Amino acid sequence: MHNSRTFGKMKKQGEKIVMVTAYDYPSGKYAQQGEVDAILVGDSLGMVVLGYQNTLSVTVDDIIHHSKAVRRGADSTFVIADMPYMSFHFNNEETKRNAGRIIVEAGVNAVKLEGGKPNRIEAIKAIVDCEIPVVGHLGLTPQSINSFGGYVVQGKNEAQFSEIIRQAELIQQAGAFMLVLEAIPEKLGKEITAMLDIPTIGIGAGRFTDGQVLVYHDILGMADLKPKFVKQYASLGQDISGYIKNYTREVKSRLFPDKEHVYIPLEEDN
Ligand code: KIV
Question: Cα-flanking dihedrals φ and ψ of residue 246, to 5°?
Answer without folding.
Answer: -60, -45
